[in-house]
Protein 1
Amino acid sequence: MEQVLNYINGEMVPAVGGAWLNDHAPATGQVHAVIADSDERDVQRAVEAAQAALPGWQALGTEGRSALMMRVADLMQRDLEALARAESVDNGKPIALARRMDIPRAIANFRFFAGAVLHWDSEAHLMDDVALNYTDRQPVGVAGCISPWNLPLYLFTWKIAPALAAGCTVVAKPSEVTPFTAAMLGRLCIEAGLPPGVLNIVNGLGPKVGAAITAHPGIPAVSFTGGTRTGAEIARVAAPMFKKLSLELGGKNPVVIFADCDFDEMLRTTVRSAFTNQGQICLCGSRILVERSLYARFRDAFVERVNALRVGDPADPATDLGAVVSEAHMNKVLGHIALAREEGGTVLCGGHRVELDGHLRNGWYIAPTVIEGLGPACRTNQEEIFGPVVTLQPFDTEAEALSMANGTTYGLASVLWTNDLKRAHRMARGLHSGIVWVNCWLVRDLRTPFGGMKQSGVGREGGHEALRFFTEAKNVCIRL
Ligand code: NAD
C-alpha cells in the first residue's frame, strides 16, 4: 500500500506516533493509500525546521528564491501526467479536468509568484521637504497554510507559492481527504534542491494537525481555505493570539441571467459553472436566477444539456462528472436533495446516486441535479451544498434579481449574463460578492484580488494581495 508521508526538514517521514489513516479512491470506494496520521508533535518538528530555515531562505534573496521555485515548477511540468492521474484517483475528478485545470494551475501558481516577486516594488511617500517615508515589507516568518479537498494541489500551491516567494518558510497541511499530490510535491522539492525546512507538509486530521498549526505560537500568519464553520473555529483560536488571518470560505453563488444575453454561450457556460468538478468548486454557480421571459426556454434547454452529461469513470477522458469526494460527502449532498424535495422542490433531472458497474460499483457518484419551484429563503437556497446540485428561480425585475442574488449569508462569486452594458455595471456594483464575472465564468487572472465578502471569508488572495499578506509592512520615516 502506498504511503503518504510527511515532508519535514527536507525528508519524507512517517508521523512521530506511527499511526496511519486510510486514503480512499472515490471512483471505487476502495482504500488506495495510507496517510501519516500526525499530531502536534509533528507540527512542532515542522515549525522548528521552518524557523531554522528562515534566515537561509531570506539570505537567498528574491532572485535565488524565485529561481528555486521555477525549478519546482519545471519538475511539476515534467510530471504533469503523473500528478494529474494521482489527483484524479485521490479526488474522483475527471482525469481530463486534472490535466487541463488542476495541475497546470498548480504549476502556474509557482511560476506566477516566482515571477511576481521579482517585479514587486514598495511605496514611498514624500512629505514635501519634511520627510521621506518608505514601506519596508518583511516576511512574517513561518506561515501556516491549510487547504481543502476540492482542488487539492491547485489550492495548496495557491497559498504556499506566495508565502515562499515573499520569503516566509511554511508549515502546510493538505486535506486528509486528498493528500496525495502534496506529498508528490514534497518529493519534487527535494529533487529541486529546496533547502530543508523551507516547506514542510504535515498530514493528518484537521482537529489535530490543523488545530496545532492554528494554535502554534511560532506561526504568526495562517492562510486557510475551507468551510465557513472551520474558518470560524480558526478565527476563534487565532484572533486572540493576534495572528494574521486569511480565510477563504464557503459560498452559495448566484448566476443571474437576463433575457438579452447571448443564449448559446450562456447555456454552455452555465452547464460548466454548475457541474465542473461535480459542482465541488467554491466558485460554482448553484443558484441560477433567470429573467421570467426567458425562464421556460432556459429551463428546457438546460435540462436537456444536463441530461446529456456523462457520469462515469474519472480515468475515462470522455467523462464529464466523476465521483464526489467521499461517502460522507455523497450522503450529505443526497441529504440536501431529500431536503429540497421536502421543501416542495421539483427535481427536473438527476436527484439520485448513480451506480456504475464492475470495479466502480462501490464508487460515490451523483447524477447532476436540477431543482425548481423553491423560493429564495428556503434552506436549499440558503445552505451550501457543494455538489452537483443547482436550483432555478425566475425573477421579474433587476431589483428583485439583486435582492435574491444578495439574499444569503455568503458573498464569494457572482455570474451575470446580459448584453446591456449599463445594466452590467449597475448589477456588478450592487452584487455583494468578492468576484463578479460578466458573460463568463472562471476566467482567472492571477494578479486580481481573490476572496469573498460576508461569511465567504476575510482578506484577499492573489497577486500583490497575497504577497502583502505574507509580509509585515513597516513604515520608515526619514527627516529630510
Ligand atoms: P474543511 O473546512 O472541512 O477542511 C479544510 C481544511 O481545514 C482541511 O485541511 C481540514 O483538515 C482542516 N481543518 C478541519 N478542522 C480544522 C480545525 N479545527 N483547525 C484547523 N484546520 C482544520 O473544508 P473541506 O470540506 O475540505 O472543503 C470544502 C469547503 O471549502 C467548502 O465549504 C468550500 O466552499 C470551501 N472552499 C472555499 C474556497 C474559497 O476560495 N473560498 C475554495 C475551495 C473550497
Protein 2
Amino acid sequence: MTVASAWRTLFCHEGHALPNQAADLELAAVTKTYGETVAVNHVSLKIPAGTYCCLLGPSGCGKSSTLRMIAGHEFISDGDVMIGNTIVNDLPPAKRGTAMMFQSYALFPHLSVRDNVAFSLKMAGTGKAARAQRADALLDLVDMTKYADRLPSQLSGGQQQRVALARALITNPTVLLLDEPLSALDPFLRIRMRAELKRYQREFGISFIHVTHSQEEAMALADMVVVMNDGRIEQIGSPREVFNTPKTTFVARFIGRHNVVPEDGRTFAIRADRLKLSPPAAADGAAATVTEVEYQGMSVHVALRRSDGTELLATLSESDFDRAPVQVGDSVSVGWQAADRHELAA
Ligand code: ADP
C-alpha cells in the first residue's frame, strides 16, 4: 500500500471526512512588528498546493515569525494569510488546517510514542479506541510501530523526528509547517531524514513549509525556495533558478559558491566552478595570487586574490587540479567566459 492510499484509508473509516484537500497558501503584504523591530516587512507570497517550500535566510531574517503567523502562534501585525479561499488571520491554530513540527520535536517526555501521536485527537475529544487506532496507523506509515510503547527518551534523534511527523500529520493538515526540523540531527542522519521528509511530502501531496538557514538543505528539498533577508523576500524560485540566476548580491553570497565581481561599473555573479586558471600572463585572464588551497574530495577549492584586490574562489575538479596543480603563493592567471557572468541588481 502506498503512503497516500494508507492515508486515505486512515481518514475515511468511521464516517471520517476525506482528508483535507491540498490548498494554496497565500501571504498578502504580511507584516510582523515586535515593538520597534520590523521582523517581517510586507511579505507577499503564493505557495501552490502540494509544494515543498523552503524559507531560507540567515538568523534573524524573519523566517520563524513568518511561519508562526501562518500557524497562528503569532498575531499578524498587518496583511492577510489565506489558506484556500479563507482568510485565517483570526482563526485559532487548530482551525486553520495547518500543523507544526518543531526543531526540538517538543515530544512529551512522560507520554509513550503512541500517546504522543494521539495527543491532538485526545484534545479534540476523539474516543480512546479510535485515537489509538489512528495513532497506530500513522506509526505504521512512518515505520515506528514497534516503538509505540516506548518513551521519547528511548528513541534516537531520527526516530523522534518520525514520531513528531506522525504527531503533526494525525490532524490531517492541509499545510505542514516545519521549523528547522533537521537541525538537532547529526550530519549523516540529517541527509537521511531530509530524504524521508521529501518522500512524505510527495506522497501526502500537501504543502510543506520548511524553515532553514542551510542553503544545501533548501536546494535538496524545495520545489520553491524563498530567500529572505531583513524581513523581506530577496528572491523566489526553484533551486536551479536561485542558484543559476541569483538576483541580488545578497542571494549570490548567501547561496554561496559564487563570486561577486564588480566590473565595468556593474556587479556580476560568476559561479566558482566556471573560473579557469592558467599559467601567469595568459592572454585571456587577470593576474592573481593563490591564497588558499582546500582539498574537498571530488573537487579542490582555490582561493585567489586578483591584482586589483578582488577575492575570488575557484572550484576545480580533482582531475583539472591534478593536471596543473597550484599552491599558496603561486602567481596564476584567472578568467572566465563572458557568457558565464550573470548580472546582479544594484
Ligand atoms: P529567523 O527565524 O529568520 O531567525 P525571527 O523571525 O525569529 O527570524 O526573528 C526576526 C526578527 O524579529 C529578529 O530581529 C528577532 O530578534 C525579532 N524577534 C523575533 N521574535 C521576537 C519576539 N518575540 N520579541 C521581539 N523580537 C522578536
Protein 3
Amino acid sequence: MSYAAADVFARQVAQKPDSVFGLATGSTPIGLYDELAKRYSEGKLDFSKAKSFNLDEYYPIKRTHEQSYYYFMNHYLFDKVNFAETHIPDGETDNPEQECVDYDAKIKAAGGVDLQLLGIGFNGHVGFNEPSSTYMMRTNLTDLTNSTLEANSRFFSEGEIQPTTALTIGFGAIFSAKKILLLISGAGKAEIAKKLFDDKIYTDIPASLLLLHPDVTVMMDKAAAEG
Ligand code: F6R
C-alpha cells in the first residue's frame, strides 16, 4: 500500500513539480513517508518546488512535544525530503480563530491542494472532522470525540495530558483538492472501510462524504480489505 501510494506522489510531483500536497499524520502514512524518504535519498524524487499543508494539529500543543503533528511531520518526512514550503496548523497560537482563517487563506493563496492524502479514523473521521450532525467547511477548532481520544491515547504516556481539542481543515479545503488519496490500514479499519463501498452517504461517517468527490483513490492493505 505504501509503495503504491508513493508511486502516486512520485507521478504527481513529476507531472507538476510545484504541486501542493495535503498531508496527514497517524500510523497509516508512516510507511508512505518512509518510502518517499528512501526514494528521495536515492535521487528519485524532488520536492524542491512543492508545498505541503497538513490536515490538522492538536490544540494546544508545543511544537517540541513528541506527539505534536509538527514534531511527527519533521521526524518522518520534512527532515528527510526537500519541500519548498511546509505548513501545519499552529498548535501554539494564542488566537486559534485567527489561525484557522489564516490557514485557509494560505491554502487558497497556494492555489489549493493538488493531491490530498487522507487516513480514516475508526469512527470514520477524516482530518479531525468527527461524526456530527453538521460538518464544517473551513478550518476550525474542534472537540475530539471520546473514540478518537481513546484511539490516540496509545501515543501519550501515562499521566501525560492529552489535548482534547484540535485544529483541523474542513470539508471545503478537502473537497477543493483536485485528487484525493485515502489510505486505510489494519484489521481494525476493516469495518469502517467496508461501509465506504456501500455506495451510501452515512451522515455519521464523515469519510462517506468523499463519495461525492470526482477523483478519489482508496488504497488499503490486505488486513483492512478483508472486512
Ligand atoms: C491525521 C488525521 C486522522 C488520521 C486518522 C487515522 O492527520 O487527520 O484523520 O488519519 O485518525 O489515524 P491512524 O492512521 O493512526 O489510524
Protein 4
Amino acid sequence: MASPTVLIDESALQTRIRELAAEIRAALPHDDIHFVCVLKGAFMFMADLVRAMDQRVSMDFIAVSSYGSGTSTSGEVRLVKDVDASLEGRHVVIIEDIVDTGLTLHYLQDILRRRGPASLHTACLLSKPARRKIDVHVDFVGFTIEDRFVVGFGLDYGETYRNLPYIGLLN
Ligand code: IMP
Ligand code: MG
C-alpha cells in the first residue's frame, strides 16, 4: 500500500491547532466550553485541540453517517450515536474534521441548536469551499483546501489511513 503524498504535515497541523485553540479561547472566554466531537473523523483533531486549551472544558461525542465507503456523498445524513449529556445552557463547540458539501454540518447544527445551548459554534480542521452545496456557517477553520480527496489525521478512505499523523492525498 503506497503512502499518501503529504499535503499538510504534522508540524503545520500542530501549529494551526494551537492557533485555533487561541481563537476559540478569545471568542469564548468561559470556563465551561463543551466540545462535541463528530466521530469518527474528528477524533484526532479533538484530541490535539483540547490539549491546547488551558481552561476547564468538557466533551462529548456524536456520530453521523453521510458517506458510504467511497469518496462520493450519498447526500443523506443519519444520526448514528447521539451525545450523552444535555446541551441546555452550555457553550457548545462542534468539532468536525472537514466541511465538504456542508450537508453533515448543516444537519448537526440544526439538531444541536434545538437542544437549547447558550451558544453554538463550529470548528472544522479543513474546508473544501468548491464542493459546498449548502451555505453553512463555520466559525473556526483550520485550513482551506482545494477539491481533492484527503486522508489521514482522522480522515479515512474505506476506514483506512485514519492513523496517519498528517493530511495526505491519495495518488
Ligand atoms: P459533507 O456532508 O459533504 O460536508 O461531508 C462531511 C463528511 O464527509 C466529513 O465529515 C468527512 O467524514 C467526509 N469527507 C468529506 N470530504 C472528505 C475527504 O476529502 N476525505 C475524507 N473524508 C471526507
Ligand atoms: Mg466525518
